[in-house]
Specification:
Strand order of the largest sheet: 2-1-3
Largest sheet: 3 strands, parallel
Strand content: 5-15%
Radius of gyration: 24 Å
Number of strands: 3
Oligomer: single chain
Structural class: alpha/beta
Distance between the termini: 58 Å
Shape: globular
Helix content: 25-40%
Length: 126
């Protein structure tokens, strides 16, 4: 009886230990895709500063921001397509993070011409 009382906890510990992974899954380096208007763009926006001071090897990124971008022109002008190309190009080798910053200036006499639906896509296929 004493032997079985001692053996039961040992069996439980062994079962728990075998269920744990032997090592944590290997993470991929981060890749940041920064997009937006002049608030993100080189020569005045925060994007290049972020990439040069906060991102260290093996992480990396690209700043696709440019002056004059709006929520409408971002999609229609091909900026969103460029972001998606970058995502596809780096997904297998990096954990990809996308930021989009477009300053919103509301003019009361004009209706809003932007929507989150502009950026909704079908799920990407590998």
């Amino acid at each position: 009886m004493r032997f079985s009382n001692f053996l039961t906890p040992l069996m439980a510990i062994g079962a728990t230990a075998s269920a744990l992974p032997s090592r944590p899954p290997k993470s991929k380096p981060a890749y940041f895709i920064l997009a937006g208007d002049s608030t993100t763009a080189p020569d005045g926006g925060w994007g290049d500063g972020f990439l040069s001071t906060a991102v260290r090897e093996p992480a990396s990124g690209i700043n696709l921001g440019h002056s004059g971008a709006t929520t409408v022109s971002f999609r229609e002008g091909g900026d969103w397509a460029a972001v998606l190309e970058q995502v596809k190009a780096h997904t297998k080798t990096h954990d990809v993070f996308v930021t989009i910053q477009v300053r919103l200036i509301l003019i009361p006499t004009q209706p809003a011409s932007h929507s989150v639906s502009l950026f909704q896509e079908e799920p990407m296929q590998d």
